[in-house]
Specification:
Elements: E1 11-15, E2 19-23, H1 30-46, E3 51-56, E4 60-65, H2 77-89, E5 102-109, H3 117-124, H4 128-137, E6 140-145, E7 152-155, E8 170-173, E9 177-181, E10 184-187, E11 192-194, E12 197-201, E13 222-227, H5 230-236
Parallel strand pairs: 5-13
Antiparallel strand pairs: 1-2, 2-4, 3-4, 5-12, 6-7, 6-13, 7-10, 8-11, 9-10, 9-12
Length: 241
Amino acid sequence: MHARATDAAPSFEPLGESTLLVRFGSHVDPSLNARVHATVAALRAAMLPGVDDIVPAYASVALHYRPMEWEAGGGSAWRNFADAVGAVLSHAPASTPADERAVEIPVRYGGVDGPDLDALAARLGLSSHDLVERHASAEYRVAMIGFAPGFPYLLGLDPALHAPRLANPRLRVPRGSVAIGGAQTGIYPSVLPGGWQLIGRTPLVLFDTAREPACLLAAGDRVRFRAIEDAEFAALDQAPA
C-alpha cells in the first residue's frame, strides 16, 4: 500500500540566508493544511533559539531565523537548523486538537454588498437564499493569511458553491467584502483590486494597525458566518468616521 501524500516526510529548503521552508506538499488540501498548523504549534512550543517568525501557508511553513545562532557544531547553519526542526517534527502530531479559536463573522449578504450573489446563485442552480444558507452553515478554517495584510483564505466551502473567479477583476473591492474564488471563500480586509465573486460584506475590520494583534483572524482559526440585516450592520460597523 502506498503512503498518502499527506503522510510523506516534509522537505527542507533554504530561502536565502535566514529563512527555512518546511514543505509538506504543493497543492491545496485540508489534510496538508492541518499538518501545517500542527507543525506551527509544535515549533512554537519548542521555542528553538534564534527563531524570529513562523509563517504558515497552505502546504508549507516558513521559519525566519538568525543563522549565527546555528553556526556552531560544524556544517552549514541552515542544515543545523533544519536538523533541529526535523527533530521537533518527528514527535509532532499530524493535526492540532480541536480547540482552535472560533470567530463569528456577521455578514450582510446580497444587494450592493454582494453584487455577484444573484447571478452566481443562478449559475450554480441555486436560489440566492439557498446560496446564503449554504455559505453561512459551514465551518471554515483559516488556511493562511496572504495576498494583503489580514486577508484570510478559508477552507471548508461547500462544493456546491465552488465558482470561478471573475473574467474581469474589479479595480476596487470594498473593505469587508465576503467573496468566493474557486474552492475557497475569503474576506477583503481593505479596499483592493480583486476578481473573486462578491456575495456580501462584514462590518468588522479585519486589519487595523492600531490594534494588537492587527489581524482579526489568524491562521488556524475556525470561522463561521452569520447573516445580518441593515440595523445590525450599522450597529457593528467599525469603519473609521
